[in-house]
Every structure is written in C-alpha cells, then in structure tokens.
C-alpha cells in the first residue's frame, strides 16, 4: 500500500511539475530505459530521447486528471519506452529499405510474404495493446525482459512464483484469443 501511495504522490508531483517528483522518476527509471535501448541497437543519446518522450507522455497523462495507473510507474515507463523505441526502429528500417531499394532485385512473392508478416505483426501489436494491464506488462516482463517467475511474482505482487506462472498462462490464452479473433476477421483471407 505504501508503494501505491508513493506512486500516486509522484504522479501528482509530476502533474504539478515539481522538480523532486521529476528527479525521482528519472532516478528510478532512466537506467532501466537506457539498458533497454542500448541492448536493442540504440545509443545513450537514443535512450535520452526516448526517455524524454516517455516522460512527456507520462506528464500529459498525469496532467489530464483522468489517468488511472494500474501498474507501477516503472512498468508504465518501460512499456511506453519500448513502444516508442520499436516504432523508431521500424521507421529507421523502412528508411533503410527505401535507401537500399536500388541494390535489391524486387521479387513479388518475397514482398507478399513480407507484407503478410507485417500485417500479422501489426495484428499482434494490436492484440497486445488491447490485452490491458497487468497482462501486457507481465508478458513483456517474462518474454522481453527475460525475468524469472520469482521476480515477476515480486514485481506484480503475486504471493508466489506459481501464482505468477498461472497468471502468465491466463494472459497468454487471452492474447491468443484476441489475436486469432483479429486474424480471422482481419486481412488473413487476402
């Protein structure tokens, strides 16, 4: 409960643009974000940019007055930074593809396969986004951050690793259901 009160106080302080709240959020989260970016083909400058963008998102959400945080600030910040970084990598990749287009011989079947995979990734991203918390953060903690069940149980407040594992399983079932509902109703029949 004390942790939850501290988190709400930090968000209130952020909404009021209080220096101490901003510094605390920075101290508690920046290294995690820097590790994420550097471990995924980024630099410290990229990490600073992405973190700054995430802080702006968090600030605007906190200022809205209607923002209700259903996870820890660090989980939210990590999730926002991860999404922003993936988006930036995608844009950079598209730019590289356009820049290298003259050196690649286009093959229609490869393009169709690539476009289909892109649509599937897009549908999976939508499915993950519509999954909601804490499932989204829990799956990210396990599959992307490579955390073990003991750490996840502690981070998400489960009584033990077995309960966290059961919740992860339930979240995966929900994700599959959402994905395949989108997939069946989406672009799969093209």
Structure report:
The protein has helices at residues 2-15, 19-38, 44-64, 73-99, 108-131, 135-144, 149-156, 161-185. The model is unreliable at 101-109 (pLDDT under 50). The chain has eight helices and no strands. With 190 residues, it is an all-alpha fold. 78% of the residues lie in helices and 0% in strands.
Annotation keywords:
190 residues; mainly alpha; Rna Polymerase Sigma Factor, Chain: A; Arc Repressor Mutant, subunit A; 2 domains; 8 helices; 78% helix
Radius of gyration: 19 Å
The helix-and-strand class reads: mainly alpha
Shape type: globular
- Architecture of the largest domain, CATH level 2? Orthogonal Bundle
| Count of separate DSSP helical elements | 8
The level-1 CATH class of the largest domain: Mainly Alpha
Which series of helices and strands comes N to C? HHHHHHHH
How much of the sequence lies in strands comes to: under 5%
Q: In total, how many domains does the architecture comprise?
A: 2
Helical content (DSSP H or I, runs of 4+): over 70%
As residue ranges, the low-confidence spans are: 101-109
Please count the beta strands (DSSP E, at least 2 residues each): 0
Q: Distance between termini?
A: 51 Å
């Amino acid at each position: 409960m004390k942790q939850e009160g501290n988190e709400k106080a930090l968000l209130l302080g952020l909404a009021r643009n209080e220096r101490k709240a901003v510094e605390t959020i920075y101290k508690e989260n920046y290294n995690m974000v820097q590790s994420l970016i550097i471990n995924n083909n980024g630099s410290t400058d990229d990490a600073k940019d992405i973190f700054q963008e995430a802080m702006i998102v968090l600030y605007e959400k906190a200022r809205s007055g209607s923002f209700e945080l259903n996870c820890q600030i660090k989980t939210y910040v990590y999730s926002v930074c991860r999404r922003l970084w993936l988006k930036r990598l995608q844009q950079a990749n598209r730019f590289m593809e356009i820049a290298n287009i003259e050196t690649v011989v286009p093959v229609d079947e490869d393009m169709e396969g690539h476009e289909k995979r892109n649509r599937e990734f897009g549908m999976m991203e939508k499915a993950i986004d519509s999954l909601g918390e804490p499932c989204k953060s829990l799956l990210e903690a396990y599959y992307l951050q490579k955390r073990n069940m003991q750490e996840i149980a502690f981070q998400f407040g489960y009584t033990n690793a077995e309960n966290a594992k059961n919740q992860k399983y339930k979240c995966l079932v929900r994700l599959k259901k959402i994905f395949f509902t989108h997939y069946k109703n989406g672009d799969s029949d093209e």
